[in-house]
Amino acid sequence: MPKLNKSGEVFADDWQVQEKEQDLSAEQLSAGKWLVHVKWYLAHKDTVTPSDNLGVWLDSDDEASDLGDAAKLFPVVGVNFPVFSDGRGFSIGRTLRERYGFAGELRALGGFMQDQLFYLQRCGFDAFIIKEDANVESMKQSLRDFSDFYQAAVDQPTPLFRRRLAKQA
Amino acid sequence: MYVYDEYDHKIIGERVAQFRRQMERYLAGEIPPEQFLPLRLQNGLYIQRLAPMLRIAVPYGMLNSRQLRKLAHITRHYDKGYCHVTTRQNIQLNWPQLEEVPNILAELAQVEMHAVQTSGNCIRNVTTDQFAGVAPDEIIDPRPYCEIIRQWSTFHPEFAFLPRKFKIAVAGTQADRAAIYFHDIGLQLVKGPAGETGFKVIVGGGLGRTPVIGSVIREFLPEQDILTYLEAILRIYNLYGRRDNKFKARIKILVRALGPDVFAEKVEQEWQHLRESPSRLPQEEIERAKSFFPEHAYVRGLADINEMASINKLRGENRDFGNWLSHNVHGHKVPGYRAVTLSLKFTGVAPGDLTDRQLEIIADLADRYSFGEARTTHNQNMVLADVRASHLYELWLELREAGFATPNIGTLTDITCCPGGDFCSLANAKSIPIAEAIQREFDDLDYVYDLGHIELNISGCMNACGHHHIGNIGILGVDKKGEEFYQVQLGGNSGYNAALGEVLGPSFSREEMPNVIRKIINVFVENREGEEEFMETFSRIGMGPFKERVYAKA
Hints:
Largest sheet of chain A: 8 strands, mixed
Distance between the termini of chain A: 49 Å
Largest interface: A-B, 41 and 43 residues
Strand content of chain B: 15-25%
Number of domains of chain A: 1
Low-confidence stretches of chain A: none
CATH architecture of chain A: 3-Layer(aba) Sandwich
Mean pLDDT of chain A: 96
CATH topology of chain A: Rossmann fold
Helix content of chain A: 25-40%
CATH topology of the largest domain in chain B: Sulfite Reductase Hemoprotein, domain 1
Largest sheet of chain B: 6 strands, mixed
CATH architecture of the largest domain in chain B: 2-Layer Sandwich
Helix content of chain B: 25-40%
Low-confidence stretches of chain B: none
Number of domains of chain B: 4
Shape of chain A: globular
CATH superfamily of the largest domain in chain B: Sulfite Reductase Hemoprotein, domain 1
Oligomer: heterodimer
Number of strands of chain A: 8
Number of helices of chain A: 7
Number of helices of chain B: 19
Distance between the termini of chain B: 57 Å
Number of strands of chain B: 21
């Protein structure tokens, strides 16, 4: 499925997502780009070497702390939204960025919806796996719904009240 | 009152544009209904039994006359000429057209209003005491903190898809008038040992089908830390609140499942990561927020006794005026001033309903008597908070003319009542006709006064919008095989001495209700010692005598 970035550009995506019950052999792993589930990674971390072709994904009931500082070892971390109403991924994404210093690509997977793109990018997501038939022009607009915001988040760590005070000074 | 700056205007304006595009996409079939649902809810728009309903935010109950006139225009132009004050200080329109909602929101934005997050699984409009800033028993004015919390919670990107709705209330007085023990988070402003300002933090209170009194998780939180601490609570709730069952998804269930101590510990751990972040409030921001709520230009140095001399004389000469003074007029921290409640509980009108013309009258009265401001209350009345005492008689004459002078505030007939089955698609039963039948049953004002302070609350279903659990007398509409019945509860209390009502027994038909309430009141009167309030008598004699009388075989 195509990948949208936070600037509204669309890319072909060649990352495969490991199913939770799926095991991967060393051959399979080396044959492509894989996002492996965090629990599988933790069980195999002694034998699996992080590389440009390896990333990790977390489901909404996984904890950001499961991956923790190890997030920095990977170029890509995915967070799954089983349904758009499951908002745990917003907290997981923000925690990976703000607490564990993850600076690679944070991608939203699964059932999030277009009208969450703006909040997702505020929480640190910079890539979104979208449907083949998605209306990209309309999504670009949704990414730009607001030009400013009150509270701090990943994209703007300084809350508006501090910026207001700085302007007055 | 808070005044928007360029940032607020920009952000709210962009919200209107965003929702306009979302509505267009929805009407063009580009957003499926299940995805449009949270979008419209977070803009205050419900689809109700008969028509859409739009819930307009009144942040912590404050309105100015310009806003009241705009609301009058909106109810007249886009609705049927009336609106409804809710138990969370908001204002609802019952008959807007779906397609016109973006235009209504644009009109609201012109007067610094919106319908943001008045519904949906997000942080809702923060509420407080209707006498904030003027109450004689106030320790700290809660409104600057309410505004700080409003801004922080508005379009919070992390907390817009919570397990369930989330309500915050703030109180700054000795007597709680904001029901802070019955909110997801209740904040009580308190002074620390060195006179510093902070909050007692209460979590996990709530009404609905599982009523719970909140638990104190922190006795004193310094004011600078409020946003980072709220963020820690919300994050714990967002991550660990139940999402598998809508009826177990409120934070009260999580707090109960973990135990308040464990919950507090988790919050504390999370907070350690956040407390030194830029979201910690600098003193300058607290001062800036306070600067929007200065004292009005009161005439200073008035001797209260002189100001009230002519009024007290008229009190003796005019019984109706005297009754109104005793029940609808409240103390003020500035000598020579009073706060006045406009009763929206005129028998025959749904509790909390206001016409377009009445909104304009309130705007005019606010301009002439109360520095251009008015407030909504969670008991579904309106308040003019800053009236010169010597003007009370003139004001009363005008209020009487407009239908706002029913002298029943705090009495049995000042009924708090949800819209119920007449409007709401969730309701099991109608609530407004019950309120009216009880008001008619108790039409002897002197008798009602003798009964003292009684809160009677009615909800049309267990979602408890009428807060029936915390009425001294609570009435709950239930559905029995397609017929409307009413369950009665006694002993609820919304203050710092929070208590949940107990169920009296099997439910009653609508026709039986006035007589049931009559019997309850008779038991109270017969057992009352001296000037006891209903709650005191109930605490002393318990449920038994009430049960016996109401269910006695004829």
